[in-house]
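> forwarded from #structure-qc
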């Protein structure tokens, strides 16, 4: 029986690749980190150099997972976690971000699901923690959709844009 293939609207994530970050990615990652919107949601300072990025990537230890998101060969996202040592080895600290022009397309959701899959299915982590600025509503919504809960507020957490800003402490406990 020859059925007509279903016609689906184009999926903006079809040409997206999520893979391990490598030191040779330092130029693309530094460019991403220097974008105003990307940087606004992080603790990064302006003008991060590719050399600084390369050192960080080369220094990644066995307890770190560092992934990049590529679209058409261009790095548009970064995410991962650092597993905590000793009596906190059941937990990891998550960080992630996406290129300013690619938000709201489901790419961040795909990246977060990959990170959670590694934590749950490969490393048996019980807890994933993060901090997120209280004014970053899209990120907070993304984390809540993926099982993260607000556990508290860090008052005057960081100095950003000339003022101190608060951040939520969020965590996901493996179901």
């Amino acid at each position: 029986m020859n059925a007509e293939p279903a016609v689906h609207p184009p999926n903006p994530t079809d040409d997206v690749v999520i893979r391990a970050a490598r030191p040779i990615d330092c130029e693309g990652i530094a460019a991403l980190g220097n974008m105003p919107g990307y940087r606004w949601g992080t603790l990064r300072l302006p003008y991060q150099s590719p050399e600084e990025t390369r050192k960080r990537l080369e220094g990644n230890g066995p307890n770190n997972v560092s992934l990049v998101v590529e679209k058409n060969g261009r790095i548009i996202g970064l995410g991962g976690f650092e597993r905590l040592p000793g009596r906190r080895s059941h937990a990891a600290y998550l960080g992630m971000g996406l290129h300013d022009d690619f938000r709201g397309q489901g790419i961040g959701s795909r990246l977060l699901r990959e990170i959670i899959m590694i934590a749950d299915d490969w490393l048996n982590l019980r807890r994933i923690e993060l901090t997120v600025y209280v004014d970053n509503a899209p990120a907070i919504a993304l984390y809540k959709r993926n099982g993260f809960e607000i556990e508290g507020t860090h008052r005057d957490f960081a100095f950003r844009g000339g003022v101190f800003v608060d951040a939520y402490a969020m965590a996901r406990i493996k179901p």
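QC bot note: Residues 79 and 96 are 4 Å apart (CA to CA). Residues 16-128 form a domain with the Aminopeptidase fold (CATH 3.40.630.30).
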